[in-house]
Amino acid sequence: MHDIIIIGGGPAGLTAALYACRAGRSVLILEKNTLGGQITWSPKVENFPGFSSISGLELADLMTVQATNCGAELELNEISNISEENGVFTLSTPYGDSYSCRAVIIATGAKAKKLGLEHEDALIGAGISTCAVCDGEFFRNKVVAVNGGGNTALQEAIYLSQICSKVYVIHRRSEFRADSAVVDSAADRDNIEYILNSTISAVHGDGKLSGVTLRSTVDGTEKELTLDGLFIAIGHEPENGFASQLIRLDQAGYADSGEDCKTIYPGIFVAGDCRKKEVRQLTTAVADGAVAALAACRYLDNAR
């Protein structure tokens, strides 16, 4: 049995492991996909303190090595259920495996929703992005589009308008879901152009995005749009369902926890993009990891 099991091997989970191991705890990280999480998709990370430029994959590797060198164990597995009895948590997998521990840190992140188009995955990091703050600088003075109609999409368009020569906002409806103040602010930008009642039906490019095909939601007609970059802002999907019987989730499925990273269930903590928060960035994820690990260590101290 481990002192702490961390579900998720992204920046939040790896940081939590580092802090917990340095506090003398036995730690197991369980990750079902790729160590490093979403950051591994970024070809360049230029907004993480200490590195002027580093690939997301390289940064994830460095964080993984640092955590394991401190004593963290790693396993590739998926958790489908958590239960607790007499202060011991049992984490079950869909494949019949189980793990036990005295405290749990959920750091499963949130995956950006994709368009589900052919060639989309191949162009992520090569013209297609899900984060303007992360990747906008790579498109300075270029032509880009933002796909979405909520606050995030419009805010990203406003941010990109300060960097890019032209920003198209592609939305499937005739009106935005974003707050009116955000819509008005975007409308004041001369280099933002709305393309409404339209969806993206195809993405194009050989190794690098060159454009998209737009389809009208009114009459089904299609047209081509040449682009250097496409930012998809149609929402994120947290993966917290396995813990829904023990912790409180908001309507979107995010863990309902504050900056202390505690949940309503003693011994269960959350860190990173899987929890309800305003800012989801690499730096805020690692901050959550540290907070959750120290909170878990205090819980174990008090549980003796």
From TrEMBL:
Entry EC no(s) = 1.8.1.9
Residue span, FAD/NAD(P)-binding domain? 2-289
UniProt feature coiled coil, ranges: none
Q: What GO molecular-function term can you cite, just one? A: thioredoxin-disulfide reductase (NADPH) activity
Reaction it catalyzes = [thioredoxin]-dithiol + NADP(+) = [thioredoxin]-disulfide + NADPH + H(+)
- One family from Pfam that matches here is Pyr_redox_2
Can you list the GO cellular component terms from the UniProt entry?
cytoplasm
Q: Which family does it belong to?
A: Belongs to the class-II pyridine nucleotide-disulfide oxidoreductase family.
Listed under subunit, the entry gives: Homodimer.
User: What is the protein name for this chain?
Assistant: Thioredoxin reductase
Q: Which organism is it from?
A: Candidatus Faeciplasma pullistercoris
